[in-house]
Here is the input.
Amino acid sequence: EVQLLESGGGLVQPGGSLRLSCAASGFTFSNYAMSWVRQAPGKGLEWVSVILGSGVNTFYADSVKGRFTISRDNSKNTLYLQMNSLRAEDTAIYYCATYTRTRGFDYWGQGTLITVSS
Amino acid sequence: DIVMTQTPLSSPVTLGQPASISCRSSQSLVHSDGNTYLSWLQQRPGQPPRLLIYKISNRFSGVPDRFSGSGAGTDFTLKISRVEAEDVGVYYCMQGTQFPLTFGQGTKVEIK
Here is the structure.
C-alpha cells in the first residue's frame, strides 16, 4: 500500500524559511517522479513543483520559482521542499503526491499546513 | 500557461440521479506523443484529493464504474451515472500535457 506522510508544517513569519518532508513507503520510490501541490484555505489546488525519479530534473510554478527548492533522498525514500522568503500567500496545506505523466497525481499524502503570518 | 475552466462551479444533485461536470482548456491538450493528459480528481470534505480518471477516460484503481470521463482536444466531461452520498465533494480537472501543470477551479457536488 502506497503511503505518503508529510511533516514540517507550522507557523512561520513572512520572510522566513521552512523545510517540508514527505516520507514514502509501499512502492519503489526512486522509480517515481514526486510532486508538491498546495491548497490555500477554502481554495482550489495549485501545483507547486515536480522532481523526476533521478532527482536531476525539477520543475516549478512561477509563483515559487527562485524561492522554493524541491529535492529527494532516494536512500531514505523521502521528498523535501525547502521554502525560503515565505509570503502570506504561501499559506496553504501542502500535499506531496506521486506523479506520472500518464496518470498525473495518483497517490496523495494527508498534507501539512503552513501558515505564514506575523 | 494552459487555463482550465470548469462548469458548473456548483452542482446540487438528487441521490440516484446523474451529474455532469465540464472542463475546457484554453488550448489543445493533445501532447506531441499523441496522448491527451487530462485527469479528474475528487476531494471529499476534509480529505486529500484522490485520482479518479486519467488520460480522459481511464478509471484509476478502485474507482467505481459509475464515474466516467470523455472528451477530446479542449473539451472534457466527467459523469457520475447515479450520485451516491459518498460522492459529495469537490471535483477538479487537471492537465498534464505541459508545464506548468494546471487545475480547474473545482466543482462542488452536493446533495439537494
